[in-house]
Amino acid sequence: MSELFDAVDALVASRSALPPPAERKRLRQGHGLTLDEVAAALRVRRATVSGWEAGRTEPRPPERDAYARMLKQLSELYPADVLLSAEDTAVPEEPAVGAGAGPSAVEPTQGTVASRAPAAAPPEVEPGRARAVPAGPAAVPGSTTPHSPAPARVSAGAPRPPAAVGPMSRRPPAGPARTAAPVVGADPRFENGPLAVVDAVEGQVLAYCVGGLVLDVPAKSLPALVEWALREARLGQPKLSGSGKDADPLLVLTEAALERYGLPAALTEQERLAGRIPEGHKVIKQLTRANWQLTKRGFGPWGRVYRPAQGSERSCVQVCIPSWDALDTRHWADAAQLAPAELARLLGLYASRVMTPRGSTAVTGLELMTALHPPTRASRPDAAGKRYSEHNPGSLGRDPVDCAPCEAPDGHPLLAGLPRFHQRTAAEVLMEEAYDWARPLTDTECLHSHLVGIDVNMAFAAGANGLTVGLGAPEHVRQPVFDAKLPGSWLVDLSHVDLSRVRVAKDTWAQLDASLLPSPFTPGGERPTGPAWYATPTVAYAVELGYDVHPVEAYVRRDNGRYLDAWYQRLRDAYLATMADLGVHADLPPQEFLAAMDGYRHRDPQLATLVSAIKATVKGGIGKLRERPRGEGWKPGQPWRALARPTWRPDIRAAVISRARINMHRKIVKHAAFTGQYPVAVLSDCAVYASDGPSPLDFLPYRDGKPLPGGFKLGINPGLVKHEGTQSVLWGEGVREQFDAPGLNLARYIKDGTVTHTDNGE
After folding, report:
1. Residues 6 or more apart from 331 whose CB is under 8 A from it?
2. For 8-38, how does the pLDDT look when each residue is reduced to its tens digit (9 = 90+)?
3. Which of 164, 647, 660, 759 would give a disulfide with 463, using CB separation of 3.0 to 4.6 Å?
């Protein structure tokens, strides 16, 4: 009889009810679970879970019943529509970030190529009539195939017209508007996309949206424009996490639109330094009279206009002003000079693949962390069926936590008791920074013809992948036993680690020339001389190399998790999708990969700009975890605004940079043990080797198309390497002699060979 019961149970399990694929993904992300974690729990492959969420496949017994059970529990925690308290829907205050990208991560220290859409003048339209205007090809956000949407000028609430194919005409004939079937899966609240570039020509105001759509804008003032964006424009973006918030509409104002709404086309020097226009400006008075508010950073290159939330309803619009230097040229190239339709395409792609920008790439990188792991979620219903806001497991929570004293940067309130001008030693401060190391060439290396630089793709993103970081406050421990699984900061002496003999596999040791290697324990590559503070990945690497460690004390975080996994995955996918659009795919053989990378930026300059912005989002987001004071009359020992953020976490920044540096050193050691070749310079994620040929394949040990296990591998995925640049050995020796700088870091200049000043490490 038990066999019959088992058969019946199996039959029932084979039909376990499952929510739709999109809801499965929402529930998983709402609880902060990665595909890998779900796959491990269900004992299936990651690709299997991905297929279930995409609707390509359906789970079968016995996994189906367990999967359904998990989703049912998550659906109770994260119902599809939940009204949260006003505190969860309020517009958050933002620290003063200015117009720049903010500190970098090392502070102080598959598809078809999409074609570029030509610019066009706004279409002429008879009053009360809308029509489609043919456009050149433009990429649909989130797509990896070319698409040719037609900019179609319509009223905000009107149906969207279909795409028209053909060259863009500056003066097309008038015609009636046409309707089109709605985009499958599109959120009707945001059917016009996440953002609009607002332009004005001859008294007409137009909003250029993604996909080539152009909307008539009836607003006569900035307050009216904000109202229009919220009530009629259907702009915004669905939340990235089940317990998160939808993205606010983003309005990008051209110079003509600024003039139309009474704003200056450019900031004065005083306004630029302040990062905002004066509070007494007439437009700010207009906003105030209309009961709109601004965040503490005021109205600057990136503005936020809002009213306090009412229940679950948010009233907030983001404003981007390119001519006020909102789009940093280091990351966005000449995006500020693009025609409105082209700029809408570029920013729309960034929004769909990363998120709607909330400020500089650094600010957006930090905001993406919070969007994927919101600090709160809705509780289970109480006896009356009411839900409340509660801590979201796996997030950093709503409240900031103090860092450990060793993790605090100079000037932090925790260090207020130190004597003035005190210089902290390695035994007092955690110094996890990226590499900046170089050495003289050996006589043998001088006989080679070339210096070849290889660069690790998205090195800091790769360092964040799978990294366990602290979620809460640190716990101080004396004489701890080191635990590689416990994130924290450790005071330990690693001067005994001898790189001339290291373990490179479980039972395999290698003899190396330590004088030709940087130390993995210091940014400058010098060997430590005594106890120093290190993040967990650095100490764990000392153990991996075969040496015992005995920490003196530590600040550990027992509440921890893989907080950055979803962040890494989204940025990785954005990067790979964009590179695929540029013809660089993840599965190319080494030679084809090098050929595809050659000149990829010229295939579509806008997509190349998008690649730069994605990479800057990674690096800047990590840097923002330890944002320093930004003026405002700050004095050492006083708190600064960034300290009030839960995402001010220098320990997480240190762990990521530590992991990235250790990843690089591990590859260097594997390469040296196998080939006898050593780098002559390392700068962050770039290493330079002497070679008899100009290509990385002239010194990387590929055999039958396969790389050295654990060593450098050519490819576009984060953590793999690409060709950074090649110069001659004579060039390297020549510039060092020219600038009388024997320690000049050649990795800094290997890309184009231009050295304009003495290397000072900045």
Report:
1. 101, 360, 361, 612, 613, 616, 620
2. 565 555 567 888 888 898 888 878 788 888 9
3. 660
Q: How confident is the model at residue 762 (pLDDT cuts 50, 70, 90)?
A: very low
**pTM of the entire structure?**
0.81
CB atoms < 10 A from the CB of 50, how many?
15
Before 308, cis peptide (omega within 30)? no
pLDDT tens column, 422-463: 999 999 999 999 999 999 999 999 999 999 999 999 999 999
Q: What is the mean pLDDT of residues 544-571?
A: 97
Question: What amino acid is encoded at 515 in this protein?
Answer: S
CA 570 to centroid of chain Cα atoms: 8
Averaged over 82-108, what is the pLDDT?
45
**Of 271, 281, 274, 269, whose CA–CA distance to 222 is shortest?**
281
pLDDT at 135: 37
Provide the strand spans (E) within 528-645: 531-535, 553-556, 560-561
Distance of CA 486 to the CA centre of its chain: 25
Tally Cβ neighbours within 10 Å of residue 529: 10
User: What's the confidence (pLDDT) of residue 617?
Assistant: 98
Beta carbons of 543 and 482 less than 8 angstroms apart: yes
Quick one: tokens of 47? 């690709």
- For residue 740, give both structure tokens: 């009388």
Q: How far apart are the C-alpha atoms of 87 and 308, rounded to whole Å?
A: 10
CB 657 within 8 A of CB 463: yes
Looking at residue 5, its pLDDT comes to: 59
Q: Where are the beta strands (DSSP E) in 79-142?
A: 131-132
> How many angstroms separate the CA atoms of 414 and 418, rounded?
9
CA atoms of 106 and 684, how far apart (whole Å): 8
C-alpha closest to that of 657 among 569, 526, 535: 535
Q: Is 486 helix (H, G, I), strand (E, B) or coil?
A: coil
Q: Encode 295-322: b = buried (16+ Cβ within 10 Å), e = exposed.
A: bebbbbbbbbbbbebeeeebbbbbbbbb
Q: Is pLDDT at 713 greater than 60 in this prediction? A: yes
d(CA 461, CA 711): 18
314 falls in which pLDDT band (50, 70, 90)?
A: confident
Q: Strand pairing of 681-683 and 436-438?
A: antiparallel
Mean pLDDT score of the chain = 86
CB atoms within 10 A of CB 352: 20
Q: What is the pLDDT of residue 8?
A: 57
Sheet holding 213-216, edge to edge: 131-132, 152-154, 213-216, 204-209, 195-201, 250-253, 313-320, 302-310, 293-294
DSSP annotation of 415: G
Give how far Cα 60 sits from Cα of 10, 45, 65, 371, Å.
10, 14, 8, 33
What are the angstrom distances between the C-alpha of 242 and each of 76, 257, 306, 358, 398?
12, 36, 23, 20, 17
Min mean pLDDT across 25-39, 71-85, 461-475 is at 71-85
Which residue pairs from 727-733 have beta carbons closer than 8 angstroms and sit at least 24 positions apart in sequence?
727/450, 727/451, 727/753, 728/449, 728/450, 728/451, 729/441, 729/445, 729/446, 729/448, 729/449, 729/450, 729/451, 729/690, 731/451, 732/441, 732/451, 732/680, 733/441, 733/446
